[in-house]
Design a protein that fits this description.
By secondary structure, this protein is of the alpha+beta class. The chain has twelve helices and ten strands. It has two domains: 158 residues, no CATH class; 186 residues, no CATH class.
């Protein structure tokens, strides 16, 4: 009974180790696929310029609450950057939006008519506001699908409806196509208004004393293709440093980020997660391996007379060695098989909770094979001990 319990606990260690490896790699691969898909949805040939410094490392973001970017910067990029196709400044904030008896709190994004081109959006209903409507500060809005659903219900027409944003009445002229799950920021839960309307009618962008009146939160820059990504990024940085009068060698008061920067950051986070789960899995496999060795040593002791009898009728030390080694590997592979199935099952189960996972079959094979190596490595000592027993002493063993 005790031996069976030890076997069960040993297999549990192997199962957990292999399962953890497969689950970790599945989540990492899924996150990588989701990250690439996300940038494909929003466009890979896009730069995002933000105020403040964007630090690399486990924690990233525009540091501080500096307000250094302006609409003038956006116009300068559009005029002087040879590889830039379209530029759109953005001014964002949170607001309570009401329609009849329904209301929701969402992100209000003040932007220009170029937003849909730069950010790779399409319209499900209606149209985007025009440059003329931006200049005239028209009170028009384009809703994200989540906002439209919260205010009017799923699948309902929204064009022509009236909504109130912080008490100001707007006419809905369009609805964006859904972008789906995009991580911490839900791109479907936002509404677009002309940037001039956001600034002068909703009071967004009212910054610190002395800050420029036309301050913006960020600037989106679309360039021709990925072959000129680095050159475009360098040109934009040099242009803004000159406009902001930043001395050579001094740190910029803005950050220019490309899709490659975001992807690299996501991959670094994924690597950290893989190392974490891999460490847990390694400890589990080590515990399982030590358990296998102990079980096999106990088994050798309990079967000493059997070993002596087999040797007496002609079994060689090599036969005994292989017998116990096969038992050790079988025990380990059985645990590895259950662990692999558990890891694959967990990966598919997580999809039901809207978590991105992608089973990497090469890693399934690697994990399963590693379980077999654990059985060989930790089973070698007990097997060798059994093979070296003296048959006469073994037969006398009580």
């Amino acid at each position: 009974m005790a031996n069976r319990l030890r076997s069960a606990l040993t297999m549990l260690g192997v199962i957990f180790g292999v399962g953890a490896v497969i689950a970790a790699v599945s989540m990492t691969e899924g996150a990588k696929v989701a990250t690439l898909a996300q940038f494909e949805r929003f466009g890979t040939n896009v730069l995002t310029v933000r105020a403040g410094r964007w630090e690399r490392g486990p924690v990233r973001g525009a540091m501080g609450s500096t307000q250094t970017l302006t609409e003038g910067d956006a116009r300068a990029i559009a005029e002087k950057c040879a590889t830039c196709v379209a530029v759109e400044p953005e001014l964002n904030g949170r607001a309570q939006v009401k329609a009849g008896n329904e209301n929701t709190n969402t992100t209000v994004l003040g932007t220009t008519a170029a937003f849909t081109q730069v950010r790779n959006y399409e319209l499900a209903q209606g149209a985007m506001f025009t440059d003329r409507e931006v200049k005239s500060r028209r009170k028009v809005a384009v809703l994200g699908p989540t906002v439209a659903e919260n205010l009017f219900g799923q699948g309902q027409p929204v064009v022509g409806e009236r909504i109130k944003v912080n008490g100001v009445t707007f006419e809905v002229i369009g609805q964006l196509q859904s972008k789906g799950d995009t991580g911490p920021f839900n791109a479907d839960d936002q509404m677009l208004v002309p940037i001039t309307t956001a600034r002068y009618r909703l009071g967004l962008g009212a910054g610190a004393p002395g800050a420029p009146r036309d301050t913006v939160s960020s600037i989106g820059v679309e360039f021709t293709d990925m072959q000129v990504a680095d050159q475009t990024k360098q040109d934009v940085e040099m242009l803004l440093r000159a406009r902001h009068r930043i001395a050579p060698g001094a740190e910029s008061d803005f950050s220019v980020m490309s899709a490659a920067d975001f992807i690299q950051g996501a991959e670094e986070a994924n690597r950290i997660m893989t190392l974490l789960f891999g460490s847990i899995a390694a400890v589990s496999l080590l515990v399982g391996g030590i358990g296998i060795m102990n079980i096999m040593l106990v088994s050798v002791t309990e079967r000493t007379r059997e070993i002596g009898l087999r040797k007496a009728i002609g079994a060689t030390p090599r036969d005994i060695l292989l017998q116990f080694l096969i038992e050790s590997v079988t025990l380990s592979l059985l645990g590895g098989s259950v662990g692999a199935l558990a890891g694959i099952g967990l990966a598919f189960l997580l999809r039901a909770f809207s978590l991105n996972t992608a089973v990497s079959w090469p890693w399934v094979i690697v994990s399963f094979s590693f379980a077999g190596l654990v059985g060989i490595f930790f089973g070698l000592l007990p097997s060798r001990k059994a093979a070296m027993l003296d048959p006469i002493e073994a037969l006398r063993y009580e």
